[in-house]
Design goal:
Helix content: 40-55%
Bound molecules: 2-acetamido-2-deoxy-1-O-phosphono-alpha-D-glucopyranose, magnesium ion
Strand content: 5-15%
Number of strands: 11
CATH class of one domain: Alpha Beta
Largest sheet: 6 strands, antiparallel
Oligomer: single chain
Length: about 375
């Protein structure tokens, strides 16, 4: 079945005009679908869930449906008092009323409503954008933290549990493929040494969780800057998208991921490493926006680990890209040979930059 035929299986009026591929995601296949009737046009997002990453797409969809229904109710309730119109994609049912469509090859497809007149950016474009990025994350966390995490399935066991990525790395590094790639590249060996030097640090959040200092909550899982949409008309944040990793986790995974992606002006795919650094100015503004919303629910312990979460999630993503490179590029989609190694280099450079700014970053986190 072609994506065009699958698009017609969802409950949106009209005929399919075209499908435009959106290739910014690293995991799922995503399309923008345009449908027309004789009097109007409707657009939505069509995605094939990556089965190699999400072995149980049915549970991903159950989580997504539960959390979006919950959030839509809350957003409606607060609409009168809100300073803006908050939006969140809705799961569009199939013509049979299901939350997803299964094709003849067991591919799982879903349709999501499109947030119109809003833009996603890979990097921070100005001060207001940095503030709004933190504000949107804090607002979303505030809403979903009221949703009991034990009602959600764990769709990706070990997701953001850094010691598990380290263990996986340790298995992969001994394979023939990894040895070949390490032998061939000085850069890969340099990253390998970088990982070794930070082994101890990898368990900082999980140790705090085991000690009971940090608790599992409902989290987004992937709140990188590109998943936070800015309203084209007002310039304010309006929605957070990409909800397939909503599940139980630590809010620190989200904070760290949002900050590492927003405070690297060169972006995740940078090729010139000299342009990669941690932008403390964007960071201090983002933190202001974040705390405006999140200040009310963060505990003393939550605050204590905010700095570590930024360093850790940056390191973790570097490690994930690097391990995938060593494994032969089996998890993240790539467009050129060596892309995962390059992505790893970017995150590790950023991690180094974060480490060098630790004291000022801690002051920013305490001072607001
Ligand atoms: C992946 O596909 P995308 O871009 O939404 C990944 C995230 C990474 C991100 C880095 C399920 O997300 O964890 O932070 O790439 N998602 C999964 O860009 O592994
Ligand atoms: Mg994602």
């Amino acid at each position: 079945m072609t994506p065009e035929i699958i698009a017609a299986e969802f409950d949106v009026p009209g005929r399919v005009v075209t499908l435009l591929s959106i290739d910014t995601g690293n995991v799922n296949d995503t399309y923008r679908v345009i449908k027309r009737t004789s009097y109007s046009e409707g657009q939505f997002v069509l995605q094939r869930i990556n089965r190699a990453v999400f072995p149980r797409p049915d549970l991903v969809m159950a989580n997504m449906k539960a959390i979006t229904d919950f959030c839509h109710l809350r957003l409606e309730e607060e609409a009168e008092r809100a300073d803006r119109i908050w939006q969140l994609p809705r799961v569009i049912p199939t013509l049979d009323g299901a939350d997803y469509f299964v094709d003849e090859k067991e591919g799982h497809w879903r349709a999501l409503s499109m947030i119109a007149s809003a833009t996603s950016h890979e990097t921070v474009v100005n001060v207001e954008h940095a503030y709004e990025t933190g504000y949107v994350l804090g607002h979303f966390q505030k809403i979903i933290s009221a949703y009991p995490p034990d009602r959600l399935a764990d769709t990706l066991p070990g997701f953001h549990v850094t010691p598990r990525y380290l263990k996986h790395h340790d298995e992969v590094v001994h394979t023939a493929e990894a040895k070949k790639r390490l032998d061939a590249s000085l850069e890969a060996r340099r990253i390998e040494a970088f990982v070794e030097e930070r082994r101890e640090f990898a368990s900082v959040l999980e140790d705090a969780r085991e000690r009971g200092e940090l608790k599992l909550r409902t989290i987004h899982g992937d709140p990188k800057i590109a998943n936070i949409l800015m309203d084209d008309i007002t310039g304010k944040g309006t929605a957070i998208i990409d909800l397939d990793t909503v599940k139980p986790g630590l809010i620190h995974y989200d904070f760290g991921d949002c900050v590492r992606s927003a405070c690297n002006p060169a972006g995740e795919e940078a090729k010139d490493l000299r342009k990669v650094f941690f932008d403390v100015e964007a960071f201090s503004v983002l933190v202001k926006g974040y705390l405006k919303q999140a200040g009310s629910f963060l505990t003393k312990w939550d605050r204590k680990y905010l700095y570590d979460s930024i360093r850790l999630i940056t390191f973790e993503l570097g490690l994930r890209f690097f391990t995938d490179y060593l494994a032969g590029d089996v998890y993240f989609k790539t467009r050129y040979m060596g892309q995962n190694l390059n992505r790893a280099r970017v995150q590790m450079k950023l991690c180094e930059s974060i480490e060098r700014r630790e004291s000022i970053m801690r002051r920013v986190l305490e001072g607001v």
